[in-house]
Amino acid sequence: MKILLLPGLYNSGPAHWQSLWESALPNVSRVQQKNWDQPNCSDWLTSLDQQISDTEESVVIVAHSLGCALLAHWAQSSLLANTDKARVRGALLVAPPDVARVQFPAPDFSPMPTRSLPFPTTVIASDNDPWCELGLARLWAEAWGAQFHCIGAKGHINGESGLAAWSQGQQWLAELMQNANNSQICTR
């Protein structure tokens, strides 16, 4: 099973847990975007869809921040017919941002899609994330049919959060992948 990393705005730098996972874990690749600094939802959707389509095996998505909103848009888009969406067997969504907040740097990602996601999903949030209130992240997790974990005061759960390779996150990823391997394709 392939792990696709889906970074958010500005990509994930070298101290970010996503970058450390990319270096340390097998069968991991990062979805690349044409413009990390000025995201366009349509362009980012096309890049994600193409990457999933080009991957011959099943995938688990590991998204951070704006990558979470991107995956929610992708899963609920009827316009992206290139890809068999059942190929995505699970998603770990970390620190979803409040895309509807005033002056959010990627306004065309708003509103956040809230229909149930068609694959097993785990949402991880921090209780002091400057980009999203914990209660809102919890509501999205419920709407998406996801498991929810709060990891305490870890900010935006990024390179500045002091998580290094984030072993707890890797454990949640391993559980998600094990469940994806043991279950039939989820068709919600």
Q: Can you walk me through this structure?
A:
Keywords: Hydrolase. Pfam families: Ser_hydrolase. It comes from Undibacterium parvum. GO terms for molecular function: hydrolase activity. InterPro entries: AB_hydrolase_fold, RBBP9/YdeN. The structure is a single chain. The chain is built from 5 helices and 6 strands. It is an alpha/beta fold. Strand 1 (2-6), helix 1 (17-24) and strand 2 (28-30) form a beta-alpha-beta unit. The chain has helices spanning 17-24, 41-54, 66-76, 134-144, 167-182, and strands at residues 2-6, 28-30, 59-64, 88-94, 121-125, 147-150. Helices cover 32% and strands 16% of the residues. Strands 2-1-3-4-5-6 form a 6-stranded parallel β-sheet, with helices on both faces. The longest helix is centred in the C-terminal third of the chain and has 16 residues, at 167-182. It has a single domain (2-182), classed as Alpha/Beta hydrolase fold, catalytic domain (Rossmann fold, 3-Layer(aba) Sandwich), CATH 3.40.50. Mean pLDDT is 92; it is low at 184-188. Helix 2 crosses helix 3. The chain starts with a strand and ends in a 6-residue tail after the last helix.
